[in-house]
Specification:
Blueprint (H helix, E strand, L loop, with lengths): L7 H17 L2 H17 L13 E3 L4 E9 L9 E8 L6 E3 L4 E9 L11 H4 L2 E8 L2 E9 L6 E3 L6 E2 L4 E5 L3 E8 L2 E3 L6 E2 L5 E5 L6
Antiparallel strand pairs: 1-14, 2-3, 2-13, 3-11, 4-10, 5-6, 5-9, 6-7, 7-11, 8-10, 12-14
Helix pairs in contact: 1-2
């Protein structure tokens, strides 16, 4: 399986320490660093994904569990009422963020902040985050990446003006995090609370008949 290049700075040092301890004969300590190396490799795994080709289907932006589905009416970047879906990523989930639809990146906004556990409500407004506005055939979509108590870094792969396809990787969050996705009301949800989803594969919504260009 492919491993994200960002993981190299984590698993390579721990593997080197494992080799050194093994040479010195410190077996117990060497086993610890071998397991740590394996954990880093597992976390930064990059499985191949083949997204569905139906352009009206909205794909999950990340692997994880749906922890919130709520109405919203005052999200300025979307410009209309709709629903917000929050997905919590545990340490066992793949941590890439993917575009839910084919889109043009209109805005990228990084905000420093605190590190509350990503599943808590205050994480949405106070944690370190990276927000993106995506212009799609359904209208503007607002996607917010947030890191939690164990995570300390967000990597963004896109910039304003970039064109992305549905399911394309647009970011990576490190060690437990959360994604909030604000969708306009013309998208009919096909996902439930506490449902497990896979980024770029699980269909979480479908564009209705009345769409925006």
């Amino acid at each position: 399986m492919k491993i994200a290049r960002e993981g190299l700075t984590f698993y390579l040092p721990s593997f080197i320490v494992f080799i050194l301890l093994l040479v010195l004969g410190w077996w117990v300590a060497s086993i610890f660093f071998l397991l740590l190396t394996a954990a880093f490799v597992f976390f930064f795994r990059d499985p191949q994904r083949t997204p569905p080709i139906n352009q009206s289907q909205v794909l999950a932006p990340a692997d994880g569990r749906v922890i919130k589905i709520e109405d919203f009416s005052n999200q300025a970047e979307v410009g209309a009422p709709g629903k917000v879906i929050s997905i919590f990523l545990s340490l066992f989930d793949v941590h890439f963020t993917r575009s839910p639809l084919a889109a043009e990146i209109k805005k990228v906004d990084y905000q420093p902040g605190k590190f509350f556990p990503a599943y808590r409500e205050e994480a949405s407004s106070q944690n370190e985050s990276n927000s993106l506005v995506l212009q799609t055939q359904a209208g503007n979509i607002f996607l917010k990446q947030m890191v939690g108590i164990a995570a300390r870094r967000i990597k963004c792969y896109v910039k304003p003006g970039d064109q992305v396809t549905a399911g394309q990787k647009i970011g990576l969050m490190y060690f437990g995090s959360r994604v909030d996705l604000y969708l306009p009301s013309n998208i009919k949800l096909k996902v439930g609370l506490n449902q497990k989803v896979k980024g770029g594969l699980t269909i979480i919504g479908e564009i209705g008949n009345e769409t925006k260009n």
